[in-house]
Amino acid sequence: MLETILAISGKPGLFKLVSRGNRNLIVETLDAQKKRMPAFGADKVISLADIAMYTDEKEVPLREVLENIKKKESGKATSIDYRKASKEELYNFLGEVLPNFDRDRVYPTDVKKLIQWYNILIENGLDDFEETLKETEGNNIEDRKG
């Protein structure tokens, strides 16, 4: 599921891959408007399946972090308001779901984006992070880096 959910640099929110064009991707916003638009080669587009969070030992795939948030929040939207939360509140929240995250390489803006993305996915019924985890189990994250 996370393979078809995309983040586009410079554009807020998340997008679902709808189709591949000749020299672009056709994406749809993950909101009530379901607005479709092209994403071109110049746009920095990344699949959520290719994102990882830094820890002291290794990089943890985003799907594992999202699953941990889902367990903590009982499958509901987060209890923390990422827009108003302080740096310490954001780090405390992430510390509960990813205890050994690297505080030097994970910034408060990263935690805000993580919470925002989680809430968007939950609101749109895209909460099957564990299934994605089972499908890709055994894959090394280093293999997917371009």
What labels would you give this structure?
146 residues, alpha+beta, SH3 type barrels, Arc Repressor Mutant, subunit A, 2 domains, two-stranded antiparallel sheet, 5 helices
Give the structure's gist in a few sentences.
With 146 residues, this protein is an alpha+beta fold. It has 5 helices and 7 strands. The chain is globular and about 45 Å long.
* CATH topology assignment of the largest domain: Arc Repressor Mutant, subunit A
Number of strands: 7
- Per DSSP, the total helix count is 5
Reading the helices and strands in chain order gives EEEEEEEHHHHH
Q: Quick one: biggest sheet? A: 5 strands, antiparallel
Structure description:
With 146 residues, this protein is an alpha+beta fold. The protein folds into two domains: 2-48, Roll (SH3 type barrels); 52-144, Arc Repressor Mutant, subunit A (Orthogonal Bundle), CATH 1.10.10.1650. The protein contains five helices and seven strands, in the order βββββββααααα. The protein has helices at 62-72, 87-97, 108-123, 129-136, 141-144; strands spanning 5-8, 15-20, 24-29, 36-40, 45-47, 52-54, 59-61. The strands form two sheets. The chain has a five-stranded antiparallel β-sheet, with no helix packed on it. A two-stranded antiparallel ribbon has the order 6-7. β1 (5-8) and β2 form a beta hairpin. α1 (62-72) packs antiparallel against α4 (129-136). The radius of gyration is 15 Å and the shape is globular. It starts with a strand and ends with a helix. The model is unreliable at 132-146 (pLDDT under 50).
